[in-house]
Design goal:
single chain, 4-stranded antiparallel β-sheet, alpha+beta
């Protein structure tokens, strides 16, 4: 699946840049997006569907979000192995 990651201005909320990449599913795409996050908000889109938004880096929140997405990714991979 093809994803677009919008890099947003922290103050104005306007788009400052975009990164495009392919990933097998939302979980993998979300994990890849953490590398681009930095000190600004990001929005992850797949086609016309908004997958999610992360505000500017908050390390506590980032750890919790990453654990949630990693857990979802493991569950997806386990389900695929069973099928």
């Amino acid at each position: 699946m093809h994803y677009r990651l919008y890099l947003m201005n922290r103050v104005s909320g306007h788009i400052e840049g975009v990164e495009e990449f392919d990933a097998p599913d939302d979980g993998h795409a979300f994990n890849q997006s953490f590398a681009f996050r930095g000190e600004r908000p990001i929005e992850l889109w797949c086609e016309s569907r908004k997958v999610g938004r992360l505000d500017a880096r908050d390390l506590t929140l980032e750890i919790l979000e990453r654990r949630r997405w990693e857990r979802a990714l493991r569950e997806t991979e386990q389900a695929a192995q069973i099928a």
